[in-house]
Each structure stands twice: as C-alpha cells, then as structure tokens.
Design goal:
One of its GO terms (cellular component) is extracellular matrix. The chain is mainly beta. It contains four helices and 24 strands. The strands form seven sheets. The protein has a six-stranded mixed sheet with strand order 1-7-8-6-4-5.
C-alpha cells in the first residue's frame, strides 16, 4: 500500500523508533523505511529556482551540505523543471502559495512510501516533494545580519532546506539533541560575519544507520556556539552557548547586534562553552586551540591563550566547557571575541575546514 506522509517544520505525528544511537526514522514491521537506491535525483522548479538566482545557488549549496556526510547516500540536483506536482513519480522542490497543502508550515516534505507483505515485507520511499511557503520571509543570504538567528528579519532558507532534505533522506524530527532535525534556524555554524547551514553529527549518524558507511574517505570535525536547550514537542530547542565564571556561575551579559556579550575582568578565570561535532566517518581526538581576538573571525593567527583535546565518536554532539584566563593586558572598555579552533594543528584531513572555529563575545570591564 502506498502512503502519503507530510513532514512539516512545525507539526506532524508519526511513529518512529528511538535508540541509544542518534536520529529517528519511520519503520515498517521493524524495518527502516528508506530509499532502495543510494542515489536519488531531486528536480528543482525553474520558476522557484531560476537560473542565476541566489535561491538556486543556495539550494545547490544545501544539497552539497546534505551529501557531506559519511553515509553511502547522495542526492543529485536537477534544475530547470518546468512542471512540478505531487505524486507524479518525480522528486521535486518548489515554492508555493498553497495554504491548504502547507497548513501554515514554513516548509513541508511530502513523502510517498510503501509498506506491505508479499511473500516478505516490501517497504521503502517512492517519492519525496519538498515544498517551501512563499509567504514566509526567507533569505538566501548566509550573512548573520540578515538572519533572525542573529537579530535579522528573515528566516534562513538554507537551514530550513537542510532540515527538509533531511526528511527527504528518510530522517524524522529529533527532540533529544542539538540537531538540524529539530529547531532548524539556530542549528548553524558562524565565524566572522558569515554563517553555514549543515547536516550535523546527529543527522549524519542517522544517514549512516539508514544507508551504511561510505567506502571513501570522509572526515570532518566542527565547533558551534549553539547547544541543546530542551524539547518542544517533536523538536529539539537550541540556544547560544555561554561564558561562565570559574565556579560555573552566570556572568553578567548584555545584547548587542543580536548576540550576547559577556562582561569580564582582566586576569579573570572563566569557562568557555562550545559544542563540538564529529560529522565524519571515524573516531577523532582533535587538538583544540583557544584564542582571544579583536574581531569576530577566530583563526590560528589570533592570540592563543590555551590548548586542549577532545575525544569525539560519531553519534551525538558534545557540549563542553574549557577553563581559560582572560589576559591581563587587554584594553579596558573594549570588545573582544573569545573563541576556539578545533583541529588547529591540521592533523585531520577534512572534507571542510571552514566550520572549525567559532566564538563568544566579551567586553572587558574598567
């Protein structure tokens, strides 16, 4: 029997399994419902994603980021589709004003699946259509100032699209961990003024559970200044990581340009909190360098004030704290950025190195 299942950003009620592993998926008599093939083509509407448009470019980036995981599965993107529709035997993506189909959601992944017995269980995904709400204020930009995550006015299209293509891959909503399949707009990497949407460790591990591990090389570690906050129905909620005093208590802070700024004293001992992820194939024990910078782009060229290491298996994101000392020769009354670079010594050959650094903003008291 062929079934339609719609998976929206803001609602949905599905049977799923949970385990000590990360991620969730639909099942049929205990069997995982997934694509029969490890390669699936998605067709993008030429009206919604015209040639040369920023949204086509953003969509192509999203597909690349979803594919950047250690499973055997990959999407192909075909552009220029002139006729899109539901249940037509093609996997398609487009923007629509159809309020009945979207039911108020910013985006929906409509999945057609089969699950029946015929001398053995037959189960799998037949078609997925990813549809975006044309009435939502999206932005294709990756600039922090444009995103509601950082005080801007628009929802980041790239994080929402990554969430929906996670559904197209076969994953369900997640409420246990920091995860793109939970609240999507603040599951994001940032360093400097740019942001980066990505699939993340939890969802990447789910892809491996569904489709197996790639035979090729694929390693990637990353840092984020967001973390798991709690549960909102089927969704995980997230919040910015924090800076604490030496005993783990809250530091005074204030908002500036959509981000928290922590007040610190020269020579003060603090605890920097960040979230590390192993998005790759193998266990890693990366070295981490800790830095103070005069700008919001953390790099190994900044002043290093500490080092350490982490042990990261591929399963669940790891939020940790590192004790650091604020240098005593910083300028009073000035903003700085306290941050870290994972794999700062370049010991891991990574599929992406642009997600290795992030920060928390500070202000040095008089």
């Amino acid at each position: 029997m062929k079934q339609l299942i719609s998976i929206a950003i803001v609602l949905g009620s599905l049977t799923y399994i949970q385990s000590t592993e990360a991620a969730s998926w639909r099942t049929c008599s205990g069997n995982k419902i997934k694509w029969d093939s490890n390669t699936v083509t998605m067709r993008a509407s030429n009206v919604s994603f015209p040639s040369g448009s920023s949204y086509r470019s953003a969509l192509q980036t999203v597909i690349s980021r979803v594919n950047d995981n250690p499973s055997k599965f990959n999407f192909n993107l075909s552009t220029g589709d002139t006729s899109v529709g539901f249940d037509n035997g093609q996997n398609e993506t487009w923007f629509t004003n159809d309020s009945d189909a979207l039911d108020g959601a910013p985006a929906v992944a409509f999945s057609w699946t089969h699950c029946y017995w015929l001398f053995g269980w037959r189960h799998g995904i037949d078609e997925v259509d990813v549809v975006f709400n044309n009435n939502v204020t999206y932005t294709s930009s990756s600039n922090k100032s444009a995103l509601n995550t950082y005080g801007g006015s628009a929802r980041p299209f790239r994080t929402t699209a990554t969430h929906e293509f996670g559904h197209a891959l076969g994953l369900l909503h997640e409420n246990r961990y920091y995860n793109i399949m939970g609240q999507d707009w603040d599951f994001i990497h940032a360093n400097g003024n740019s942001t980066r949407a990505y699939l993340g460790e939890d969802a990447a591990n789910g892809a491996v559970i569904l489709y197996g591990t790639t035979g090729g090389y694929m390693e990637d570690v990353s840092l984020s200044h967001h973390k798991y906050l709690g549960t909102s129905g089927e969704y995980s909620r997230h919040q910015p990581t924090r800076l604490y005093n030496s005993s783990g208590g809250n530091l005074s802070r204030f908002g500036n340009s959509g981000e928290w700024v922590y007040r610190v004293n020269k020579g003060q001992t603090v605890r920097l909190e960040l979230t590390a992820e192993n998005n790759g194939k193998s266990y890693q024990s990366p070295a981490v360098g800790y830095y103070v910078s005069t700008n919001n782009y953390i790099s190994t060229g900044d002043r290093r004030i500490g080092t350490g290491s982490l042990g990261l298996g591929r399963n669940i994101p790891y939020t940790f704290q590192r004790t650091l000392t604020i240098p005593s020769n910083l300028n009073s009354g000035q903003y700085y950025w306290l941050g870290a670079v994972i794999d700062y010594n370049g010991a891991i050959s990574e599929s992406s190195g642009v997600n290795n650094a992030t920060y928390v903003r500070i202000y040095v008291n008089y």
